[in-house]
Amino acid sequence: MVLITNYRQKTNSSFRLTLLFFNRLFSSSTPSSSSKLKDYCFVAPRSLTPNPNPSPNQESKHKKKKQKPLYKPPSSLDREGLKPLRSDLPFDFRFSYTESSQSVRPTGLREPKYSPFGPGRLDRVWTGVCAPAVDPTVRSLEGNEDPKLEVKRRKMSEAVLGAPLTNAERKILVEQSQRHKTPRQINLGRDGLTHNMLNEIHNHWKHAEAVRIKCLGVPTVDMKNVCSQLEDKTGGKIIHRQCGLVVLFRGRNYNTKKRPVIPLMLWKPHEPIYPKLIKTTIDGRTVEETKEMRKRGLAVPVLTKLAKNGYYGSLVPMVRDAFLMDELVRIDCKGLATTDYKKIGVKLRDLVPCILVTFEKEQIVVWRGKDYIPRESGEILEEVSFECLATESGFGERGLGNHGKRIPQYVSSSDDELLASDSKLLAANR
């Protein structure tokens, strides 16, 4: 019996100790009023003693917490609060000035009339082909542009160019523009003289009085048009030309701080739809006769093979000379893009002139026509490059890239590559 009572006392004491331990353990997190922690200046954190009755003001403070604004990346199309750009350039804005013609009107558009300058960025209306300098609601877009604009451009260029350069000044500027002197160069490719290229030319004119332009590809078929458009749209003056290399002078009175405002195109617009180049029948012939002519044209010996992105300045006189021997001429265009040799065919049709027969098998076949009259001997002009003319007039024997070698004079039945300034020098030397 004594043992049993001792065991019960021990178990009771151990049970009391465990109860006391757990009471103290759980009472430490939430101190009771009888706790002595207040005697030691202990203040419990708010997380342990939450306010059972929060005030409405405290709830409103937590709800009215300001959120950070969402990040908005910068965009060139965001014109909020900005006025559209205004340009006083007196000509219609086009994507390409050398590869588009105002005389040929398109039959349709491939896309809606979205301005390539961006929405709200330009104060001119985009017609699908150009952004005219005069509001299209005021005048009709058919035909040539307003003659007043041409007069205004001429006056602006004369004011900037100032007095003509002397032979010594030309020689210095051409020497400074050579490849071993400066790496600055503008490349003019298959799109020709584009609108954004005008801004690039003015950027080069900040650092030098003359800029070197290298022309390759489709536009070189008509270099006379390229040179005239460069002078017309930039207001500069071509002081040297050798094949596809051109040196463009900015003018004596050019001020970089007063350069014209040229809004940039943000993307390339789709080309409009033009009439078909190849007709079903040619010059009143029947369908069978037209098919027979195309077969004969593809069997004719090749006049020349065009290289990709080459210089095609002598193509027009070659075709004219070939028409003296045969009525059909074939040009091999393998390796060229379809749009490239079609544009070349259009230029040949207008410059030679001739009739397009077919573009099959990457070939250009042209026909001289029924009433073809070859040029008389009195109309054959001696084509002299600008380098040779300048050398004869005291310009110097060293030109752009030839290092003292004179260019041989080239006799042909074409005067397309003879510039207006070249003809004046030729007349003066004669």
From TrEMBL:
InterPro entries given in the database record: CAF1P_plant, RNA-binding_CRM, YhbY-like_sf
Top-rank taxon, per record: Eukaryota
GO biological process, alphabetically ordered: Group II intron splicing; mRNA processing
CRM domain segment(s): 163-261, 283-379
GO molecular function, one term: RNA binding
Keywords: mRNA processing, mRNA splicing, Repeat, Ribonucleoprotein, RNA-binding, Transit peptide
Region Disordered: start-end pairs: 47-84
Protein name: CRM domain-containing protein
Transmembrane segments: none
One GO CC annotation: ribonucleoprotein complex
Organism: Stephania yunnanensis
SUPFAM superfamilies noted in UniProt: YhbY-like
One Pfam assignment: CRS1_YhbY
